[in-house]
Design brief:
This protein is an alpha+beta fold. 20% of the residues lie in helices and 38% in strands. A seven-stranded antiparallel beta sheet has the order 4-3-2-1-7-6-5, covered by helices on one side. β6 and β7 form a beta hairpin. The longest helix is centred in the C-terminal third of the chain and has 12 residues. It is globular. The C terminus is likely disordered.
């Protein structure tokens, strides 16, 4: 798998803890292995949206930590900004759709729910105007 590394001229717009959801969420689906949830870090840059695995610091010692740091985090998925078509939020879940029709589902893993911030940042990055909120009118 590819390793995450910023490209030249790429700026980080937002970064935070996210989980990538593969399959439909449900108790039975999780038990039967039809749903896989991978914890990681979401990075929205000026060129792409990337989800990468979180580096877990096992208590195996400094040599192991150094090797993991040198290798870098593994990319779960990377979507070029020009391929992003839409983004929406559903009950703490961020659903990103590409021009090709693929859907990527993520959940905000932070202590405070940052789903709205992620949706707003992705919409700004791809040029979709923010939805008007009833409180603003």
């Amino acid at each position: 798998m590819a390793r995450f590394k910023r490209e030249p001229g790429e700026q980080v717009l937002m970064k935070g803890a996210v989980s990538w959801i593969q399959g439909e969420i449900g108790f039975v689906n999780v038990l039967r292995g039809r749903c896989k949830i991978t914890s990681g870090v979401g990075v929205l840059t000026s060129k792409r949206l990337v989800a990468r695995k979180a580096i877990v610091e096992f208590p195996w010692g400094p040599l192991f930590w150094l090797i993991r740091w040198i290798l870098g985090p593994t990319i779960l998925f990377s979507i070029p900004r020009t391929s992003l078509a839409s983004v929406r939020a559903e009950t703490r879940t961020i659903i990103v759709r590409t021009i090709e029709g693929q859907e990527y589902r993520m959940m905000s893993d932070s202590l405070f729910d940052k789903t709205d911030e992620w949706v707003r940042a992705i919409r700004e990055a791809i040029g979709i105007p923010a939805a008007s909120s009833p409180a603003a009118s």
